[in-house]
Input
Amino acid sequence: MKVSKNELMASLKKAFEGLGFHPGDYYDAADMVVWLETHGLDGFDRLQAALAYLNTTGPTHAELIEEGTNYLFLDGNDSSILLCGSEAIDLLSAQIMEGSAARLQLNNCYNRTFILQRLVKAAQRNLAFIAYWRQDDCCIKVSIAAGADLPEHQTFSMAEDIDPQSLTVFAGTDLVVVEQQFSEQIVIGELIETYSSAGMSICYQDSVEQGIEIDEVLWSTLEGLVERILVESTESSRAGAGD
Amino acid sequence: MRPDSQVMQLERLGSFHQSRLSFMRTLVRRMVTENWQITSPVFDLDDQGYGTVVYQVEARFGTFSYVLFSHYLDPDSRNDRVIANQWDLTMALCEGKVDADQLAFLRTNVPKQEAGRVDSRVLVLSRANRSGRTFEYVVSELAEGRQPCIDVIAEVGYLYRTTAAYGSGKLGMADWEKVRTKHPDFARPFAAEMFTCFMLRHFSMQQADHLASRRAPGKAVILDKDIKRYLGIGNSTGLGMAPFLINHPLLISQWIEMRETALARVILASESGVDEPIFFRLAASVQRVIQHLGEIVTADERQHNSNILVRKELQVLLAWMHDDGLRLLRDHYVWANLVQYVEQFCHIETQELINTLLIELYPELVDDLEEQMGIDESIRITPEMPVTELLQIIEDKYDWALIIDFTQYESIGAFWYRSQEKMEPRLGQTNIDMGMEKEMPMAIGRRVRKCYDQASAYNLTYPQQNVAHFIMRHPNRSGIVGRIQTLAQRLYGDIRENLVHSNVLPIHLLRCKLSFFGVSKFDPRSRLWVRNTMFQGAPLISDFGKPFVDDWQFPIKPVLTSG
Output
């Protein structure tokens, strides 16, 4: 079945609310899922993976372990980026605003591809980012220039052993400088695949024009989560609607 | 510009009237001046008025189809509430022309409304019910060869009531983003939804004529054009609309800012006084509003008393205008003086009426603002902001929230929740009704208060820290912090009211939004829902392309030329 972006956003917000997310968190989480799906990055598949986890635990956030003048170290507490991605990028953004460049290390976190939407949003404030993480036997590098609307998503072979559940983000005001910082600290393997911003843009336009295809089982799973925030209707409750 | 401490009071927002910037007004201006062509390639109604109609709309930039299904409805099933599942009419506004396959698809899904699915070719889905008081009466009179009595029409104002007009991507429809970027004809907020209601009005009169002619061929007459112009569309609006104002604070803020900008421009235009013709136009408008209010029938005591009081105050004002007005025309900022006088001596509804009438006088200063009613609605956290600055913003912008004592039961005596019945928003009583644990986040004041208390305590411990660190420690506050920071950059921020107070009047929220839609004749049925009319007095499709004076607001009974 096809749904619109607005409809999907509304459903996701309520579904995340049903999972115990707070206002702010459920807006951000819904934004992240919709962004990935509408830009051709399998948002729904990743959501299903996340739901399997989120459905069994309460909402958990990251914790700031250590902070220097140009680096941040966070423990994700086995949380999903859907929950801890916003605060991590906000913290990093604040540090760049007060300095020039910074590096964030977020360990023990899941569903890291969702970080793309947070980077895109933060880039609107004229900040540049490179995010890097391990995905199975490969590594993912996502770059976005300051002020850009869309990032570039690249897959590399793994050149060095890195923690399977960590996320590293380099940030600054100029992507060239950030890229330099990244190259100095990270050894990357061979480029396997590039998903360009142009490809993302085409995918997004198609979503707006045609709607978004969603598996009926996933839609019904979301409806089930939405049910959790609804209150049983009774004769007396109808009075609360004007009857 | 008036300060937000004055404008954003809920009672004032609930006293707003339609203006030149209201969406119905701007839509009608566009349709008439651009001479939209509307034909009906399919008009397949039987003798009972049931069947299918497709209107083809040639607007300035595109072609659209308005598809309507008319069904038999058991009178016992006629219900205006959102929880209804059958209606007299169901409609869809679609992009482009509709072919046989799409029509079949729409016929299967549109009558089901929320229980069906449509696709991104559909812009708006809507439904309507006949008025039990006027529809059959009008058809009978026409079939008898008579025009209906205008007093009966005036009491109701319409033949059909719409109970919902869904757009913005609901049920698989086109997203607002698509409508805004692909269809300039409907690229203003709610333009497509308002058009759907306008077309319903057109159909309601066509159907009445059709039924009368089928009942009494050769004897029936066509509804008089002046009566047609006086007929609008009824509307029932309940709590479902209220959360919109809280969930779209930036959009609401923008609408209000544009309205206030219009008012400020008008006041500025009177810097060196005003000309006589403008003054006489204002006097004529006041006279018209007095008549308009006198013709409103409402069983709601509060609204009834308010209408009486406003009429009385307007009559005093009118007498003053006749006696002394001309002498004061050359006064410096005469409109500012008028606004000030009314604020000092008149009811809040009279104040907002006068503001609306002043805006009406200067189309050339105001109408360009209609293009600025949309806005990017992103809520953004400013993570580097010091916590001390956040606290200062709360003290400045949310002083109204900080003075509320949330330990008192009355301050938290109500809560908003979504019912299992079609997710209908409802208002519950704290500790009495079920569902408190599933409360919707409508209590902005209380959320701000909690945030303020936590941020104050945090600031004592970590005096140099920024908002990013505060949120790291209190992640549950990210939503309200982003809201506070984003709205702080606007002239008009949050609605200054505790929406979970025991005595909260949600009807003010509804009326505020409805005023921006452009409705008139508010008839509250309780503190939770209101009836009103849309497009009453507006031009007909046959008026499109003809010379047009945009003064159809505050409709009054027509004096029939045909006798």
Observations:
- Chain B touches chain A through 61 residues (CB under 8 Å).
- The mean pLDDT of chain B is 95.
- Residues 301-328 of chain B form the longest helix (28 residues).
- The radius of gyration of chain B is 25 Å.
